Amino acid sequence: MNASPFSCLLAAACLLPVPALAGPPGAHVHGAARLQVAVDGSTLNLQLETPLASLVGFEHAPRTAQQKQALQAMADRLRQANEIFTPTPAARCTLVSVELESPLLQPSPPAGGDGHADLDGSFVFRCDDAAALRDLEVGLFASFPKLRRLDVQVAGPRGQSAARLSPQQRRVSW
């Protein structure tokens, strides 16, 4: 029996793991973001990576006063990370630092570019009772309605796990 080139290609694609079909890690997908959660002793580290379109609806240098205001409002909201990320209340975690990086948050955003600007956010919490830290409620969807999916990777004292969050499912547990 002779197989067509198409059926061979289809069979090979079916053997690939699903993430390989979705594109390389770090693929630029509007409406989606990635969150890495690391629990290290009493420290909870969160690393957010997302296209700016998922947060503000555009990725080019702001062209209007409204777009400049949208970028500023987004940055101000993310700096209030203790209102967006809620670790297990019993762990008594306190926000220690927030760092936001994007070419569009620079005092003079670059003109031109490839039109695919991202945002990288780093959020650090210190927890008084790290043993009680078991989950994280993520409020990004309420603050940024263009965000539809959040792929989460967790590394903690009980090992590694992954979850996909959505506006309907906003909590990751470990």
**Average pLDDT score:** 85
Q: Mind describing the biggest β-sheet?
A: 6 strands, mixed
List the total number of helices: 6
Q: What is the 3D shape?
A: elongated
The N- and C-terminal alpha carbons lie at a distance of 50 Å
Low-pLDDT stretches are: 1-25
Provide the gyration radius in Å.
19 Å
Structural class computed from helices and strand pairing: alpha+beta
Number of strands: 9
- Estimated share of beta-strand residues: 35-45%
Number of domains: 1
Estimate the helix proportion, in percent.
Answer: 10-25%
H and E order: HHEEHHHEEEEHEEE
Reading side by side through the largest sheet, how are the strands ordered? 4-5-2-1-7-8
Organism: Candidatus Accumulibacter adjunctus
InterPro entries: ZrgA-like
Signal peptide: 1-22
Keywords: Signal
